[in-house]
Design a protein that fits this description.
This protein is an alpha+beta fold and 138 residues long. The protein is built from three helices and five strands, in the order ββαβααββ. Helices cover 33% and strands 25% of the residues.
């Protein structure tokens, strides 16, 4: 990542067969943790995901973990799966508590860091809506 985009770390050279002009394109690290490379990774992931989800309205939910639990989750990363499962169950329980007997489509994603790059595990959920399902977050 340190030499990402630096030609001295490697590059591809393209030569125009007509005029002979050369262009060097430095290799990148392709790490999703580096801002410019991560943006490419995210854009490709979003494009692929959008092609595979239902073409219906969706609701974006965020489940934030209390600060008191962050150190515990940081030290035991197996709890990240537990976070995802709990968020999914909570969304379903809210729907069921309102008498909705349908299972929505869910896309559940965990972010482990906040914008300040400090550990802040939280769950993002994209959940399908339908005309039959009232909005359950008001």
């Amino acid at each position: 990542m340190i030499g990402c985009g630096d030609p001295s770390s490697g590059y591809a050279e393209y030569v125009c067969p007509q005029c002979g002009n050369k262009k060097q394109v430095p290799f990148t690290c392709k790490s999703r943790f580096r801002t410019s490379c991560g943006k490419i990774y995210i854009d490709k992931w979003v494009e692929k995901t959008v092609r595979n989800i239902f073409d219906v309205p969706h609701r974006h939910l965020i489940f934030i973990i209390p600060q008191e639990l962050r150190k515990i989750i940081f030290n035991d990363r197996t709890l990240i799966k537990v976070m995802m499962d709990c968020a999914s169950r909570a969304a379903l329980e809210v729907l069921q508590s309102r008498g909705i007997d349908a299972v929505p489509g869910m896309l559940v994603i965990v972010h482990t860091f906040g914008r300040d790059i400090k550990f802040n595990a939280h769950v993002h959920m994209l959940i399908t809506e339908s005309d039959r399902l009232p909005r359950f977050i008001t």
